[in-house]
Specification:
The chain is mostly helical. It has 5 helices and 2 strands; from the N terminus they run αββαααα.
């Protein structure tokens, strides 16, 4: 049985919704709570897996949808507009870059590493711009 293009789009949409919901549930399960705020979770894993399966376009869309959901449902709130854009929209949307090299041999691990690094960089630059002192090591930066 051949799968039509509309069938594949529907399948990508449904899988995206399931993976976003799974990522949201995993964001509430904290592996470790950091003393200065924040936590270690495995919420990025479903987004990375979705990006590996469907590629760059659907991966960016799913990660952007997850960033909006995370901004609305997280237990913290954004202090300034820089924090909202940097901590949520840019940082979580950067996870979609993991699908950019997913079809290449060994490309997914490289793209996943770059996406995680970019998400971390967006969050740290947001902390520096907004002036929040949540990390004592950044107070002198």
């Amino acid at each position: 049985m051949t799968q039509t293009k509309s069938h594949l789009r529907l399948r990508a949409l449904c899988e995206g919704a399931i993976f976003i919901a799974l990522a949201q549930v995993l964001s509430y399960l904290k592996l470790y709570e950091l003393p200065q705020g924040g936590s270690i979770t495995i919420e990025m894993l479903p987004i990375f897996l979705y990006c590996a399966r469907w590629g760059f376009g659907p991966g960016m869309l799913a990660s952007f949808a997850y960033s909006i959901l995370q901004a609305l449902l997280s237990s913290t709130y954004a202090w300034t507009w820089q924090s909202l854009i940097g901590d949520y929209l840019l940082a979580f949307t950067a996870l979609g870059l993991a699908g950019s090299c997913a079809k290449l041999k060994g490309g997914f691990s490289t793209a996943r590493s770059w996406a995680a690094w970019l998400a971390f960089s967006c969050t740290m630059s947001s902390v520096r711009r907004s002036g929040r002192n949540t990390c004592p090591r950044l107070s002198s930066v």
